[in-house]
Amino acid sequence: MTNSNIIFVPFDRQLYDNIVRLSNGKYDPAHLAVTALQGWLETGGAEYDFDWGENYAEALELFSGVKSEKASKPSFEPDREQAPTTEIEMEGQAQVDEGLMRWGPLQLPTGTKLRMEYQREHYFASVEKGKISFNGAYFTPSTWASRVANGTSRNAWRDVEIYNEKRKSWELAALLRDRMSQKRV
What we know:
33% of the residues lie in helices and 19% in strands. By secondary structure, the protein is an alpha+beta fold.
């Protein structure tokens, strides 16, 4: 049976075999590749200095759900003159520094606490060096959500919560994203 919604991409056979062998069959290399690509797309390719050119706003909306007619490629170097752009920053959770993680319209400073619930258990991480730090490794939101969920595909916007120090509460990333997108329109 064929599915016209699936394409096949060349994958190095030795790499494929090593992933299966070293994970004792736990990880599907095709799924890992899709998850990594989804994480890359959520950032608009910015962390790899990929340039969508005039199509950046459309790519950002399509892949991360962020709608902005005036979107421009984000820089991973913080602009110290720029006003805070997330509600969390506005409420003084943390200062913008070299560890700023940009995720769609959100800019999460070093020290920002993140949480995800999976199978009735909470997993905690924080922003460090512009990435999500969890158990000594660094992730994009999508790859962290997938790691917590044992390699299954997840939508980090709907799964990850961000801690607001001032309110002393957890806020779903999707709600913060929507709030920030509404403010920019």
